[in-house]
Amino acid sequence: MKKYLFAFTFLSFSVFAQAPLQLDNVVQKHVKNYYGNLYDFMSLPSNAHIKEQIQPNLDWLKKAFSQQGFSTEFLPTAGHPVFFAEKKSAAPAAGPLKTLLFYMHFDGQPVEPEKWQQESPYKPVLKKKNANGQWEAIAWDNLQTGYDPEWRIFARAVSDDKGPILMLLAALDIMQKENVKSPYHLKVILDSEEEIGAPHLAEMVKTHKNKLGADFLMVMDGGRHLSNEPTLTYGCRGIASITLTTYGPKIPQHSGHYGNYAPNPALRMAQLLASMKDEDGRVTIPGYYDGITIDASARKILAAVPDDPEMIRQKLVFTQPDKVGANYQESLQYPSLNVRGLVSANIGEKANTIVPDEATAEIDIRLVPESSPERLIGLVRKHIESKGYVILDRKPTDAERLKYPKIVTLLEREARMLPFRTDFGIYPDRWLTAAIVRTFGKDPIKIRMTGGSVPIVPFLRELSLPAIHVPMVNSDNNQHAANENLRLGNYVEGIKTWMAILTQPEVK
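RE: above sequence
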């Protein structure tokens, strides 16, 4: 009996290893069994700013992964615990990859319920587009009799990043039902603080370095290429953030009495920010782009990405892009300087005829491997000082206000994410590419570096392993915004992708 069972497992594995159609048939056979799990997990709020929301998610994950034969652990940090699951293989894989580490996160962005077109962001809704191109709700029970790949599930964190976790759990359960085993030692890290900058992840990795050891790290976060074709991403920009505040009168003053006399902090801030970039969107701070070179090989990689500039222009509705780099992909190879928020006094019905007391700008700096956050923030500081400002790390005192004509408070956020970039052509790249080809029957789009950030550099440094992104969700998913959604076709294809990865044999 055992001999027969082994033969069945080996046969199933070999069929999966060769036929994308077989993968699709198996997933279609089982997929309707997993929409209930999706509904239940999406119904759990997971805002990392709210401590009470995290533990129910941890408990749900513990039960789900335990049912698939994983040992589980909540790894403590100075913030929320990180979920860790591990499953060893009875027969270790051949080839250089024996232990695979996967990183995802289950925390989601905060919500503004009034901006969602449904009862609650935490009550998943199945929708389809009507004849007018608008999304309308349809009964969840429709999923038990079939699905349209263009239908979507709307809920907070469904794409960023609970969806890929649920795809993994579905793939594992299907493999269990089909008696197919993975030859790999599997380790899964599910972050609880990614959306707040993962401030405690680096220390956790350092503490549990031996537990987390692996041969290859895969990150299942972010969206595919805009075409929604299968995609692999080999790097991410990092991020550092600063807050600037300029000052006018200590208390807002009547603009009739003191306009033309009391310095206006909003104008000061506007002038300061405008001095950092030219009209083409290029940073003018000396040295900001130093060290960035795009050689012929890199240009070939960037040119191979099938971007459609006109589609991007129509989607975002602007006339022409900034001129940082020759095209969209090239622009992502440079560090950015982005004003992500700007506040001074009030507007609209709340506007007052005043000279404001202060103005504040939030700035994020997207990092590339050639540019450290310390150097770039240092250059911003030097530039601000060159404009005659005294820089403080706190609000000025009255004595300082009276002494210095131009003052800026500059605060650096502690949480940073560093950039990374993995070389094309290494063994994990060839192995993973083979798994994607098995899933889709075609090569993936390969992106050198994406613009977003993930906090995985501590894994790369501490564990000395390569990393590649395997984005699974649709790029137009409204992540971080209202009405976040997951396309059903991507959900099903994600399950197939997981199964292909978990059963991918050695490549030459």
